[in-house]
Design brief:
Layout: E1 16-19, H1 23-34, E2 39-42, H2 46-56, E3 62-64, H3 68-73, E4 80-83, H4 89-98, E5 107-110, H5 116-127, E6 132-139, H6 141-147, E7 150-153, H7 157-170, E8 173-174, E9 177-178, H8 188-218, H9 222-232, H10 240-250, H11 260-263, H12 273-284, H13 289-301, H14 304-313, H15 326-359, H16 365-371, H17 382-392, H18 403-411, H19 413-425, H20 431-444, H21 450-461, E10 474-476, E11 484-486
Parallel strand pairs: 1-2, 1-4, 2-3, 4-5, 5-6
Antiparallel strand pairs: 6-7, 8-9, 10-11
Length: 488
């Protein structure tokens, strides 16, 4: 439709609308259509909208729009709109483009990977206009968007009452339960998705370290290790990430005939959610060491010039590896992986709890574990155990302290220590394994190094300290006669 041409107002027939017809947006629109909803579709580039309708129009009822006004007018009231555009400025611009056409009570949902603070801001701006804004995490990638993702919507309860049933219908289902629930107000949904992605970073790094240890220690081929991961996927480590690890390791590059993993450049990228998870954890005072080390490992992998210089001049001084009992070594790595994985999830749920308290979100951590069981990237059998842990104790202070996890991590503790020690002796970098074990030991140690640190802080900055034998806040006159004074 040309800009100056008069067009008849479209009839409001669409149940829901999707803006942004890149792969994620178009697949989500198709998913909605597959479930019987009439879906209005719009893309800033009209040709893309036409392409989607041409290629997939037979899959359901679509209402294509050439401009924002006709898109909005094609929606039944209250209008429900899902934005699937790039996070940041593009999201703000898209919101501004639809705002003039909306009425009080309409719902706008951002399904991208937006920062939760942006979502809080946008929710406040739209609610002041009488509109509902829903920031929702959507996990599962392109396939999940089409066949059933895990969906984490925030926003008002009123918005969820209108939009939630649709989202639950198109989400993945496990044991008949939808992998979608109302997370909490304003930025809660995007916050939970951010932490989900942070855990994903840790999970992937731990799997990578397991692969590296097994390959170096056993001298095994990627194809042989694919069999190991496939076996693990049949047990308590069953998960999407373990499953695709076996698939990647088994793949052979068609051009060279070499294992695919050996022709891929070893530099890992990131889109920001892992970094946000770590930054926010620092703000909240929550240690997420496994997630942090996984994020830093990606950063280190990209320091190609520094790595090249290091290889040329820095000594390795590593012992040669001679694994005498293959099966025992594989078992040790598996147990270390499981234990470190528990730490990563425990830290992630700690961050969710801290942010929920900070922002008054009242997030149900058990519900988060439940909706991550299907559709999302970190879906795993393991999440059933986490769901059960929070069902036993919704206020669980520490996931690691749940009887099930305390027992299984305790039984694998010796193996975990052996793996980290052997990796250090043989020069194999295992930042996620090692930091997770250090975190575990930091939790159970009777006295931490913080006592000395508090003494140092008081000496150089008069930062004060507390005592173990009586209440109060104290300072020692270090530059004077070193007497102790009580300040409070």
């Amino acid at each position: 439709m040309s800009a100056g041409r008069s067009e008849p107002s479209p009839v409001a027939t669409a149940d829901i609308g999707v803006v942004g017809m890149a792969v994620m947006g178009s697949n989500l629109a198709r998913n909605l259509a597959h479930h019987g909803y009439t879906v209005a579709v719009y893309n800033r580039t009209r040709a893309r909208t036409e392409e989607v309708v041409r290629d997939h129009g037979g899959e359901g009822r679509f209402v294509p729009a050439a401009d924002v006004g006709s898109f909005v007018e094609s929606l039944k009231r209250p209008r429900r709109i899902i934005l699937m555009v790039k996070a940041g400025a593009a999201t703000d611009a898209t919101i501004q483009s639809v705002l003039p056409h909306l009425e009080a009570g309409d719902i706008v949902m951002d399904g991208g990977n937006s920062h939760f603070l942006d979502t809080i801001r946008r929710e406040g701006e739209l609610s002041a206009r009488g509109l509902h804004f829903v920031g929702s995490g959507i996990s599962g990638g392109e396939e999940g968007a089409l066949t059933g993702p895990s969906i984490m919507p925030g926003g008002t309860a009123e918005a969820y009452a209108s939009l939630g049933p649709m989202l639950e219908t198109i989400s993945a289902h496990v044991d008949g339960v939808p992998c979608c629930t109302h997370v909490g107000p304003d930025g809660a949904g995007h916050f939970v998705k951010m932490v989900h992605n942070g855990i994903e970073y840790a999970d992937m790094q731990l799997i990578g370290e397991s692969y590296d240890l097994l390959r170096r220690g056993l001298g095994a081929s990627p194809a042989e290790l694919a069999d190991v991961f496939a076996q693990w996927n049949a047990g308590d480590l069953e998960s999407f990430l373990i499953e695709i690890t076996a698939e990647v390791l088994r793949h052979v590059d068609a051009g060279t005939g070499r294992p695919f993993v050996d022709v891929v450049l070893d530099r890992a990228g990131q889109k920001g959610t892992g970094k946000w998870t770590v930054q926010t954890a620092l703000d909240l005072g929550v240690p997420v060491t496994g997630i942090a080390e996984a994020t830093f490992a990606r950063a280190l992998s990209s320091q190609s010039t520094q790595r090249e210089v290091a290889r040329e001049v820095l000594p390795r001084d590593a012992e040669p590896w001679d694994v005498t009992d293959r099966d025992a070594f594989v078992t040790d790595v598996r147990q270390a992986l499981y234990a470190s994985k528990v730490v990563a999830y425990s830290q992630g749920f700690d961050e969710i709890a801290a942010a929920s308290a900070e922002h008054g979100w009242d997030i149900d951590r058990g519900a988060m574990a439940r909706i991550w069981r299907g559709g999302c990237i970190i879906r795993a059998q393991f999440l059933n155990r986490i769901t059960e842990a929070y069902e036993r104790d919704p206020g669980l202070t520490l996931l690691l302290a749940d009887p099930y996890f305390a027992d299984i991590v305790g039984r694998g503790l010796s193996a975990w220590r052996r793996v980290v020690a052997q990796a250090a002796l043989h020069g194999v970098p295992t930042p996620a394994f090692a930091s997770s074990l250090a975190y575990y030991d930091g939790l159970v140690t009777e006295r931490s190094t913080a006592a000395l640190i508090q003494g140092q802080r008081d000496l150089f900055g008069a930062h004060t300290y507390q005592r173990v034998d009586r209440p109060g806040v104290f300072h020692t006159l270090w530059t004077g006669d070193r007497t102790e004074i009580e300040l409070a």
